[in-house]
Amino acid sequence: MTGIIGAYEMSLLTMVGIAVTFALSLNLITGLCGQISLGHAAFYGAGAYCAAMLTKAGIPLAAALLAGAVVAAAIGLVVGLASLRVRHDFLAITTMGVGFLFIGIVRQQDALGGTNGISSIPDPGLGKAGFVLLCLASAVAVALFSLYVKRSWMGYAFDSIADDEDTARIVGINVPAYKLAAFAIGTAFAGVAGGLYAHNVGIIVPDSFGFVESVTVLAMVVIGGNGSIWGVTVAAVILSMLPHWFQFIDNYKLLVYGGLVFAVMRFSPGGLAGIFAGAVARVRGGREPA
């Protein structure tokens, strides 16, 4: 693989694989189940810190990533319990508070590196090509799992909850159980993405998992189209590449991504998936009858 593409291209592919995994993890919670989260970077960070500390202690990468997923899922379940009592705007504020709380706690813990974070994170030992393939495999696995969930009974339950929780209860759906499942699964995948990110960059600091990252991943879901697997994947690829195509964007992420989200919500609430579906419908509608 190293003979086919250069080191820079491999770095971009690694970043894309991590971004897609991260975006699809939020899509399970917000896109499919309709639970708005403005603090998703906290779970990303939990996985990153857990995996980094374990590999520094000599634990293999696979076990460290699994542990990071478990820790993130455990925190996600706690947040999920809060989601049982609050909805919509109040849930968004609650999850945003979780994000700020995570940053505050990490900064105060010397065992986690405090404000300096964790450095000298061990190389995974897979080689550049091996690590790229691992990140891409993670993205593909989460995409396939998301597709499976969307087409399963769980996906139908998520869709019902997203549309109307009260009606979902009336028809016999166990709303609390499915909400907790969405948070547990989505945050677990975020933890995996965080672990991969930590071993990709080699150093992590609390601000790497702040509000900007939460807004960025939410923008990927909204721009791609809530609940659309391929739409969110495409949006994750584009938005993760934008700062490399246009370097000034890196300093104005909130402005640029916020503007994109506003434009999508104003002119195409269905995101990229909605635009594509509309184009297909117009093409089919314009065909002459046989």
Briefly note the structural class of the backbone.
mainly alpha
Tally of individual helices: 12
Termini separation comes to 49 Å
Largest sheet: none
What is the H/E order?
HHHHHHHHHHHH
What's the quaternary structure here?
A: single chain
Number of strands: 0
- What count of domains describes the coordinates? 1
State Rg. 19 Å
What are the low-pLDDT stretches, counting only 5+ consecutive residues below 50?
Answer: none
Strand content: under 5%
What's the helical proportion of residues? over 70%
Q: What's the mean pLDDT score?
A: 87
Q: What is the approximate shape?
A: globular
Question: What this model shows, in words?
Answer:
It is a single chain. By secondary structure, the protein is mainly α. It contains 12 helices and no strands. It has helices at residues 7-32, 41-56, 61-83, 88-108, 127-151, 153-163, 165-170, 175-201, 211-224, 229-245, 253-267, 271-285. The chain is globular and about 55 Å long. The mean pLDDT is 87.
